[in-house]
Amino acid sequence: MGDEEKRNRAITARRQHLKSVMLQIAATELEKEESRRESEKQNYLSEHCPPLHLPGSMSEVQELCKQLHAKIDAAEEEKYDMEVRVQKSTKELEDMNQKLFDLRGKFKRPPLRRVRMSADAMLKALLGSKHKVCMDLRANLKQVKKEDTEKERDLRDVGDWRKNIEEKSGMEGRKKMFETES
């Protein structure tokens, strides 16, 4: 057991040592990354932002202010033009979406799922558990006896419709119609 404990301690010590070495390497890498970012930032600022030199006389300061105002005005005009273009594009997008909406229909119908539920279960779900309504649809159906009415019999007895039309055509046919009705 003693030999095994020594080996476990050695393994644990080695792990600790490897962790500390990895942490040291990571710390140096982080420092290098930070210094690289700082140098990139300085390079970018030196390229895009020329150093500001403040003139000594009042006329030079006024001239510098005029130049800065001219640059600001140019930037504002460009900003305004961009905003107008964005508003125009947004309006066009809304119009296109409206046309698409109109073409597709008033609303997109969701796919309906078939639900198997008895009428009693539906009523229970809608009305709650306190309402006890039994809905036996078959019991509520009325039985209808099919009685032959006189009109149906007449229609069956007419036979060939062409003969019927020939009989009713002309003045005599109309006279017969009035006689049979009264």
From TrEMBL:
<protein>
    <recommendedName>
        <fullName>Troponin I, cardiac muscle</fullName>
    </recommendedName>
</protein>
<comment type="subunit">
    <text>Binds to actin and tropomyosin. Interacts with TRIM63. Interacts with STK4/MST1.</text>
</comment>
<dbReference type="InterPro" id="IPR038077">
    <property type="entry name" value="Troponin_sf"/>
</dbReference>
<feature type="compositionally biased region" description="Basic and acidic residues">
    <location>
        <begin position="29"/>
        <end position="41"/>
    </location>
</feature>
<dbReference type="InterPro" id="IPR001978">
    <property type="entry name" value="Troponin"/>
</dbReference>
<comment type="function">
    <text>Troponin I is the inhibitory subunit of troponin, the thin filament regulatory complex which confers calcium-sensitivity to striated muscle actomyosin ATPase activity.</text>
</comment>
<feature type="region of interest" description="Disordered">
    <location>
        <begin position="29"/>
        <end position="51"/>
    </location>
</feature>
<dbReference type="GO" id="GO:0005861">
    <property type="term" value="C:troponin complex"/>
</dbReference>
<dbReference type="GO" id="GO:0060048">
    <property type="term" value="P:cardiac muscle contraction"/>
</dbReference>
<dbReference type="InterPro" id="IPR050875">
    <property type="entry name" value="Troponin_I"/>
</dbReference>
<dbReference type="GO" id="GO:0003779">
    <property type="term" value="F:actin binding"/>
</dbReference>
<dbReference type="GO" id="GO:0003009">
    <property type="term" value="P:skeletal muscle contraction"/>
</dbReference>
<comment type="similarity">
    <text>Belongs to the troponin I family.</text>
</comment>
<keyword id="KW-0007">Acetylation</keyword>
<dbReference type="Pfam" id="PF00992">
    <property type="entry name" value="Troponin"/>
</dbReference>
<keyword id="KW-0009">Actin-binding</keyword>
<keyword id="KW-0514">Muscle protein</keyword>
